[in-house]
Amino acid sequence: MAKKIISIRFDKPGNHTLSGYTANGGYRTLEKLFKMTPDAVTEEVKRSGLRGRGGAGFPTGMKWTFVPRSTDKPKYLCVNADEGEPGTFKDQLILKHDPHALIEGIIICCFAVGIKTAYVYIRGEYDFPIARFSAAVKEAYEAGYLGRNIKGSGMDLDVVVHRGAGAYICGEETGLIESLEGKKGQPRPKPPFPAVVGAFGCPTVVNNVETIAALPWILENGADAYAAIGTEKSKGTMLFSISGMVERPGVYEGEFGVNLWDFIEQSTGGIKDGKKLKAVIPGGSSSAILTADEARATKLDYESIAAAGSMVGSGAIMVLDEDTCVVKALEVVLRFYAHESCGQCPPCREGTYWLYEIVHRIREGKGRPEDIDLMLSICPDMSGRTVCVLADSAAIPAASYIKKFRHEFEAYIDKANPPARRLHPGGVNLEARAL
Amino acid sequence: MSHAHHAVHSTGRPFAFNPANETAFQNLLTKYPTKRAVVLPALWLAQEQEGHLTVESMEYVAKRLEQPPVTVFAVVEFYTMFKTEPVGKHHMQICRTLSCTMRGCEDLQSVVERKLGIGPGEMTADGKFSFEMVECLGACGTAPVMRMDNRYWENLSVEKLERLIDAAAEGRDPAGEDFNRG
Q1: Looking at the complex, does the CB of residue A357 fall below 8 Å from at least one CB of chain B?
Q2: ipTM of this model?
Q3: Is the pTM of this model over 0.80?
Q4: Whether B163 and B99 share a structural domain
Q5: Hey, are the CB atoms on B81 and A166 less than 8 Å from each other?
């Protein structure tokens, strides 16, 4: 049984309330915290090896050290709860079932970095998670865990819940900051990085919900205990969101270093209805697709998945069975990125649009023989040429789906053998329809 | 970027926050170091008060926050959840991204079109239902998923969606029915 750190209280009834959380051992790290120095806390997090769970996997403690120690400006924490990468649905569980663990983690981070205001940016569609987390914040204020002079420590901290309004790009950390400031969520050129010039022109830490929620465990059990879990470079556990054509989709906490397909199969019961595995998208829809053979041969950790040509990303694993159409899957993925491009960089604005248009016409049976290579030629002109990585997020799946499943694309262009129009033939098929 | 073009709707009468929203607005002003940062939260208040954003409410938000109206209009245009046209009493947002498509969201769209006679972006004549296909709702583990009445309806099937629409049409609260796994 894999070690559980983040999800250990998810199933405990009433854990979302303050009394439930404290009964489950919550907030007890604060006594320890307030006896430490901020630098010692940062050092502990660095030594734990914790990496950001939002997608980039950047070392958390190191990110904190980029914030200037002495500054006249206020410093801010932005907790990224914009959870938008297709396939990702883990942070909502923390907001719903363990909101006080997030608050406790926020206190730890803000103590370490010297922050007095934290904004928790939650995607606007998450009505219930917003309500749950807001209620927990209210309770924490009333009990003296937030506000002035927290539990007699002299530490002041305000937590503000900020609701998004529907834009994937606000999950990019500088897009999030722009949005928080009341603007369109268009990412900023970097440098300067948010740690130096972030929200309201001030030094800012941006961390994902799951990253922050891991902090109480690390402080309570120590960096060594956390670092002992996982692999040499991928420490600890991660919440994996597994969806698609498996028997029991859901969020499963896993230790790094296990076999990717074994983990999926053991967690979810394998492919739905006894079908065969076709492919695995391991790190959200922006990651490169893995064939069934690759998924069976790969370990689940940052380095192994990178060596296989893809990424762990936000831990969003999507599973395609033998009946799933890769061409249509790419059409759906590219439609997403074309819709969500913020429009400020031409390689992204035009590239996502044209990749979608071309795969759409291929899937409609109107593709030209040269269209497949045309798509492959567009991808390198998008990657690494824009303010943020949204363009790459479309180019990477496009190139990988075509390279690994080229025959499926060719079958759409070969009019003699037109495949089904649906992504997946399962379910109650009322009528075959275009998207 | 390809967000739908927003028509601008005018009520022809002035807008002001109701007393509860005025209190909420004053509270918001204490939470942020700039007035501009209150643009999104204030737009949420205005939209919740009237059901959608009007020329008058957007100009009101701009004036209260000392922003040029165009900065508020541009923000509204950028975010998909801000509505500048009336939506139905029950606004249905069916997710159309990868996991929901694999698990049958196209069938759900067919149910809406067949049962209510409306396509994406349309509203029934009685104003009860409107409908759009949206990008990933972040609940892929319970796909296919729809957001309606400020909550998620998960693990949907054709049969469940039909029941849900019937209940909403008849004014019953379908929330008590076993639609969700967790």
Answers
A1: no
A2: 0.94
A3: yes
A4: yes
A5: yes
